[in-house]
Structure formats: structure tokens, C-alpha cells
Specification:
The N and C termini lie far apart (80 Å). The model has no long low-confidence stretch (mean pLDDT 79). This protein is mainly α and 190 residues long. Helix 1 packs antiparallel against helix 2 and helix 2 crosses helix 4. It has a 3-stranded antiparallel beta sheet. It has one domain. It is rod-shaped and about 140 Å long. It has 5 helices and 3 strands. Helix content is 64%, strand content 7%.
Length: 190
């Protein structure tokens, strides 16, 4: 599968999850609204002589409010989880395109370093941080790989290897005549 297909698959799954959660919250909110309407109608009606029922109704109302806040918290957590998954996917795609060494480590490093500053707009990922300004994710990754810290993740090139500047020692040349040369010279003179 190509990175675009993987991205599309992840996006489809996240959108499905988001739609399902939104539907659950909408259904719960509709039920809550109906219950609250009934409660308001009960409170608007003249109060019965028994004092225990208003206390019971207020407990029901408190319970419904608690359920609503719990569902909103669950929705916010799911939304954050979906956003984090999209960020991880975007970083993984950028790292895969860079063909870096240790892509998992580089992905974790980038998620830790730029995870909060990562924004998506029209399918493109941008890093919006004070250190880099607003730049595309691929440009920030490219700049990082050119830095001293980022060179650890760059594979060696075929021309320069790992970029080592160590000189290879050349063999010492001797000016002494070899035995073969001396014998050849001696027989040539005869």
C-alpha cells in the first residue's frame, strides 16, 4: 500500500469513529433534552404537598447533568485520540518520504518535539512553532535532517559514505631497487 492509501484508510476510519461518537452524543443529548423538558414541566406545575418528590427530581436532574458531562468528556477524549492518530500518521508519512534511518525513533522524536505545534490544513501538515515559524512538515523534517542532531538519521551516501573525512594512509614508496630489478640489470649488461 502506498502512503496515500494508508493515509486515506486512516482518515476514513477516524471519520467513521468521529461520526459514530457524534451520533451517540446527539442521541444522548436528545434523550437528555426530552428528560429535562419533562423535568421542567414538573417543576412548572404546582408543587404537591409531599416534600420528598422535589428532592427526588433534583437528584434526577443532577444525575442527568452528570451523565451529560461524562459523555462530553468521553467525546473530547475520543476527539483528542483521533487528532493524535492523524498527527502520528502525518509524521509517519513525512518520515517515510525522507527515507531516514530508524524511522520509529525519528517519528517519536518529532511527535515529542513538534506534536503540539502540528496543524493540518487542506490535507497538508504544517508546524507552527516559535522556533521554526510556520513551515510545512516536510521542510521542517528536511531542515532537521540537515542539522547535527538529524545527521544520525540520514543514511550514508554512496559517494561520501557516512561523511567521514579521515584520510587513508598511502603505502610508503621505496626508492631502493628490488632484487629482481638488480638481477635483470646485471644480466642485461653481460
Amino acid at each position: 500500500m502506498t502512503p496515500e492509501e494508508i493515509q486515506a484508510l486512516v482518515n476514513a476510519q477516524i471519520e467513521g469513529l468521529r461520526a459514530e461518537i457524534a451520533q451517540q452524543i446527539t442521541t444522548a443529548n436528545q434523550g437528555l433534552a426530552a428528560s429535562l423538558t419533562k423535568e421542567f414541566k414538573k417543576h412548572a406545575a404546582p408543587a404537591p404537598a409531599v416534600q420528598d418528590e422535589p428532592e427526588k427530581e433534583s437528584l434526577t436532574l443532577k444525575s442527568l447533568k452528570q451523565q451529560l458531562s461524562d459523555m462530553q468528556a468521553a467525546f473530547a477524549a475520543k476527539e483528542k485520540e483521533a487528532t493524535d492518530a492523524l498527527k502520528r500518521s502525518g509524521i509517519a508519512e513525512a518520515v517515510a518520504q525522507a527515507k531516514a534511518l530508524a524511522p520509529g525513533t525519528l517519528q517519536k522524536l518529532f511527535l515529542t518535539e513538534y506534536g503540539d505545534a502540528l496543524k493540518q490544513e487542506n490535507g497538508m501538515w504544517y508546524v507552527d512553532s516559535p522556533a521554526t515559524g510556520v513551515k510545512p512538515l516536510n521542510a521542517v523534517l528536511s531542515d532537521f535532517l540537515k542539522s547535527d542532531d538529524g545527521r544520525l538519521f540520514v543514511p550514508p551516501s554512496g559517494v561520501n559514505g557516512a561523511g567521514s573525512t579521515e584520510a587513508k594512509p598511502s603505502p610508503a614508496t621505496t626508492t631502493e631497487n628490488k632484487v629482481e630489478d638488480l638481477l635483470f640489470q646485471a644480466f642485461s649488461n653481460i
